[in-house]
Amino acid sequence: MMVLIKKTNIDFIKKRFMFFGISAIMIAAGAASMAVKGLNLGLDFTGGTLLQVQFDQKVTTAQVRESMTRAGLETSVQSFTGRNAYQIKVKGSQERVNEMADKIMAGFSASFPGNKFTEEKRDYVGPVVGRDLAKKALFAFILSLFGIIVYVAFRFANPVWGAAGVIALLHDVFVAAGALSITNREIDLVIVAALLTIAGYSINDTIVIFDRMRENMRMFPKMQLGQLANTSINETLSRTLITNFTVLAVVAVMFFYGGEVINNFAFTMLVGSICGTYSTIAIATPLVYQWAKKGR
Question: Is the residue at 7 inside a domain?
């Protein structure tokens, strides 16, 4: 077994209020940003204008995106294999289809004056995620959280452990969503998938520590809960850091070198990976201890 950190004896439980304070600041910052700016919902949620054009001379996807940025438009660009054609999507109401399409065309004319292009399609695309689908997705997410509480409560014979795991999970998802709001990054279905991945990643890592706590409770039944929690976190710290560093390294490469297409996804996963590591160590287990202490 590979050991990254040997013989650590960090008192995480003693520092729990400092960790809770850090989390409160991150959550408050995200909540304030959402209240003031809201979330930058993408086409999947809002709908917008679709324009498809074909150029006479070759242009790259990067050049097309750059031309749209110069025109002051936040767009989604899709290329067609084997053709010098691109599909441009930009948020907006159905009434503004022609206005937005004309802005796109004007942007191309300004950026590629010597390259003729032909408009192949102009249309309005409705939101992929309608209200009914959004409600069903939210219901499914809440149901899954309830299932996690039931599963963890059954596995560890204590519903508090399940509730602590879910709070840590929600903490990670909310902090990641807050970071998206603060940086004004667009949220589409890919970002939703990233947030759900963070949720699964978070609870899985938390259960590893809970498993070690359960083993230590059987081995040392007279050990105080605070000492048991600290021992369990320190014993799994090497495993947690190795696993999470591996994920973080991959996500960091995607963020810095993956290009614009996956940059928002990589950013979400980067924040979620860091936050997931933090909450596993500093939120979930200290919450179990705090609740147990208050229940005495």
Answer: no
